[in-house]
Amino acid sequence: MSDGGKTSASLPRIRACIFDVDGLLINSEDIYTDIYNQILHSYDRPSLTWTTKALQQSRGTIGFERLISGTNLPLTVPELRAQVATHHAPFTKSQPLPGVLSLLSHLSSATPAVHLAMASSTTKPFFATKTSHLPSLTSHFTPLTCLFSDDADMQTKKGKPAGDIFLLAMERINSSLNATAGAESQKLRPEECLVFEDSIAGVAAGRAAGMRVCWVPHEGLREVCKGLEKDVLAGKMEEVEERLLAMETSAEPKAEVQMEAGGLGRGGELERIESDDGWAEMIESLESFDFERYGIRLVG
């Protein structure tokens, strides 16, 4: 977690940005939702609700178990995984979310340099399926600093909500730096890294790594987390999930997951919420990212 002695005003300049992929850089979470709904409807189950989706995101096997339980789907986790795997074709049409390409372009040309990395729960081959047609996105990253769940170095690490994948991404960046080439090549510290995430578990992972976090949730997740934003930003995942589980089992009607035209799932007036300690913030779109807040100077 964060260093309680450091406030947002005393935090150092961000020198590295580490990005999740699904639902953060590309609209693949909406594609997953469409696939889940096709499977649910084939068993005469209603569409996925955002309460269930929030509990499922970035949670691996636990997430699949929650999806099955929350929808009364008559499948085992392996059976559900197998059915999802038959629907991979739509991912070849994934698209960047609003603000992504502009943000990456600005960060890539920032001075002093800002190092970029990816840290995703997806696998490397599946990442290629989702992004091989998006060189304008992938060209901003180097293979060394792109980490996926099937990476050899991740096999002895824990997945999100543990902070291991983000710390490993930082280590990968540090391994590429020449420690004798000046201040900008000195090893990164966690507080100099900014994690970009869209899921509750991802935010918790960033906080567990001792890094700062920019949370950019889907509008459906924002709606279901109304009043819980500060807890999410503080990395209090268990408390948030308890509230969501209570909502899931309540008798109140729940909103189905909806996607806007184009499947991008963003819109409305922009809002920003900051954690009490200043180490994390929620923004509605990467279009509204505040470079100055993190000491990032843009060229031109």
Kindly describe this structure.
- By secondary structure, this protein is of the alpha/beta class.
- The chain has helices spanning 28-42, 50-56, 60-71, 77-85, 100-108, 124-131, 135-138, 164-175, 200-208, 219-224, 229-233, 237-249, and strands spanning 16-19, 115-119, 146-147, 193-197, 212-215, 272-274, 280-283.
- It has a seven-stranded mixed β-sheet with strand order 3-2-1-4-5-7-6.
- Helix 2 packs antiparallel against helix 3 and helix 2 runs antiparallel to helix 12 (237-249).
- The longest helix has 15 residues, at 28-42.
- It is globular and about 55 Å long.
- Mean pLDDT is 90; it is low at 259-268.
SS elements, strand count: 7
Structural class of the secondary structure composition? Answer: alpha/beta
In N-to-C order, the SSE pattern is EHHHHHEHHEHEHEHHHEE
What Rg is obtained from the alpha carbons, in whole angstroms?
19 Å
Taking the alpha carbons of the first and last residues, their distance comes to 35 Å
Strand content: 5-15%
Give me the side-by-side strand order of the main sheet.
3-2-1-4-5-7-6
Biggest sheet features: 7 strands, mixed
Helix content: 25-40%
Total helices: the number is: 12
Give the low-confidence spans: 259-268
Task: Report mean pLDDT, rounded to a whole number.
Answer: 90
What's the quick description here?
With 300 residues, the chain is of the alpha/beta class. It is 36% helix and 9% strand.
